[in-house]
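This part of the workshop introduces the protein records we will be handling. Getting from the letters to the tokens is the skill we practise here. An example says more than a description, so a record of this kind follows:
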Amino acid sequence: MTSLKRQTVSLQDLPNTQAYKIGLCVLALVPMLSLVMSFKEIQKLYSLVGAFFMPILALTLLWLNNKYVNQEFKNGAWINGALALVFLFFVATSFYKFMG
């Protein structure tokens, strides 16, 4: 199992990091979708990506805040329960939409 490495980067060195360069490429290339897709298709794609945001955020917070965070900053039982409910709500809604 790998652990997350904590890196400290100064503001002067930030433009030289790989994450910064990938972010710039994404900002430059994503708008180019409008060259090959219609506006309606882009709206559908945006809504699809947006629909996955909350459940993925809930899972990420459950995983990272309980595994890679110091004991004093870990989520409590109430927060974990709320995040699990958010995830289950989206799973149930998706199941209901597509299966029934």
